[in-house]
Amino acid sequence: MDVGIPKVVDGRHGAETPGQQEAAANASGQKELCRALQKLAVLSEAGNETECWMEPYIRMDTEFRKKAKSDFEKNFYKLMNNPVFGKTMENLRKRIDIKIVSSDETNEIRKLVASPLYSMHVFFFNDLVGINMRKGNLLLNKPV
Questions:
Q1: Contact of 64 with 70, CB cutoff 8 Å
Q2: Residue pLDDT, tens place only, 90-133
Q3: CA proximity to 113, closest of 132, 97, 94
Q4: Rounded distance between C-alpha atoms, residue 129 and residue 123, angstroms
């Protein structure tokens, strides 16, 4: 499979000119991009076609932006795409669970601190404690 990797990105060729040296300095990001494109090409050759499920929605918002009469409308339709993309890229493993417990409930505090999911605690007032717990059960229903 020939992906057409430029000399600078390929890494097998030295940089002779100053322009090529500068490009070689930026090549690490290009190498990663090239590897990702190669993996994508291998996946699509294997029959695992990726679906552009967000494309119709983005095109619709782009058309609305073209027809918009004010800056607010243009920005509104542009920003309508960001939350959808952001929620799909959310890392569910970084979610936390914070329990707010009164300092009078010493048995509850001991139970939470003894849990393997305990991360840290914070005193809010003299009588309130926030206990930071990691998630026990994860439902990995996002692409990341």
A1: no
A2: 888 888 899 999 988 989 999 999 999 999 999 988 889 999 99
A3: 132
A4: 5
Please tell me the distance from the alpha carbon of residue 141 to that of residue 87, in angstroms, as a whole number.
11
Token reading at 126? 């003299």
Range of the domain at 20: 7-45
Residues 81 and 57: beta-carbon distance below 8 Å: yes
Using DSSP's 3-state secondary structure scheme, residue 7 falls into: helix
Rounded-to-integer distance, Cα 78 and Cα 101, Å: 42
Residues 100 and 128 in one domain: yes
> Computed over its alpha carbons, how large is the radius of gyration of the chain?
25
Tell me how crowded residue 14 is: count the other CB atoms within 10 A of its CB. Answer: 10
- Residue 93: phi and psi, rounded to 5, are -70, -20
Mark out the alpha helices in the chain (DSSP H runs).
Answer: 7-10, 18-25, 27-45, 55-67, 71-79, 81-88, 106-114
CB 109 within 8 A of CB 131: yes
φ/ψ of residue 129, rounded to 5 = -125, 135
Quote the CA–CA distance of 74 and 97 in Å, as a whole number: 37
Please tell me the total count of domains within the chain: 3
This prediction's pTM? 0.43
